[in-house]
Amino acid sequence: MDTDKLTKIVSMCRRRGFIFGGSEIYGGLSSVWDYGPFGAKIKKRIKDLWWDHYVEKRDDIVGLDSSIIMHEDVFKASGHLAGFTDSLVDCPKCKKRSRVDMLEKEDTTHYICECKNVIDITVNKPRKFNLMFKTNVSATEENPVYAYLRPETAQGIFVNFANVLNTVHKKLPLGIAQIGKSFRNEVTTGSFIFRMKEFEQMEIEYFVHPNDADKMYEYWVKERYSFYTDKIGLKKENLRLRPHTADELAHYARGCTDVEYMFPFGWSELEGIANRTDFDLKQHSEVSRKDLSCFSSAENKKFIPYVIEPSAGVDRTFFAIICDAYDEETVNDRTRVVLRLKPYFAPYRAAVFPLLKKNDELVNIAKNLFYDIRNKMPATYEDTAGIGKLYRRQDEIGTPFCITIDGDSLKDQKVTIRDRDTMLQERVSIDQVVVYIEQKSI
Ligand code: GAP
Question: Which of 121, 225, 381, 421 has its CA 20 to 30 A from that of 369?
Answer without folding.
Answer: 421
